[in-house]
Design a protein that fits this description.
By secondary structure, the protein is α+β, with helices and mostly antiparallel strands. It has one domain. Helix content is about 20%, strand content about 30%. The strands form 3 sheets. Strands 3-4-6-7 form a 4-stranded mixed beta sheet. The chain has a 3-stranded antiparallel beta sheet with strand order 2-1-5. Strands 8-9 form a two-stranded antiparallel sheet. It starts with about 30 loop residues before the first helix and ends with a strand. It comes from Aeromicrobium panaciterrae. This is SseB protein N-terminal domain-containing protein. Pfam families: SseB. InterPro entries: SseB_N.
């Protein structure tokens, strides 16, 4: 089956166990290492229900939404988690949506958020700031060298 004919019902991450992506495991706790690894790593964006109107029959309508947080400075950020367990520790009712870090960065920009928060509430909590979100979403690669750290642009 070609990429054009991919079954839309096929999962993006077949056989996913919900554990931290091996690309992210050694990076967690090191902000630069997270930036190097997250683009191609699978992360989970939490989706929560928003209750809609209650029809007369009593069934509830629910819309789902990604979670944005507003900081004390007024900026908003999209949440993402490295594992289902990390997300469940934050909110056991949230539904995990697996995406690549690059797609989470793109969603951050689509939501007009300023940052991506990875693993909120955990010791390895990482803030991916706006400029880095923009580079990740554009497919740029972070490279460390003796001269410093730079984003490589194609």
């Amino acid at each position: 089956m070609s990429d054009h004919q991919r079954d839309l019902a096929a999962p993006a991450f077949p056989d996913d166990d919900g554990l931290t992506d091996p690309l992210l495991v050694p990076a967690l706790g090191d902000d630069l290492a997270v930036l190097e690894a997250i683009a191609d790593a699978r992360v989970f964006v939490p989706i929560i229900p928003l209750l809609g109107e209650v029809p007369t029959e009593g069934d509830k309508n629910a819309d789902m939404a990604a979670v944005l947080m507003t900081g004390a400075d007024g900026r908003t950020a999209l949440l993402a988690f490295s594992s289902v367990q990390a997300m469940a520790a934050w909110d056991p009712q949230a539904r995990p949506v697996p995406v690549t870090g690059r797609d989470a960065a793109r969603a951050t920009l689509a939501e007009a958020a300023s940052a991506l928060l990875l693993d909120l509430g955990s010791p390895s909590f990482t803030v991916v700031e706006t400029v880095d979100v923009e580079h990740l979403s554009a497919g740029h690669v972070l490279v460390r060298s003796a001269a410093g750290t730079v984003w490589l642009v194609d």
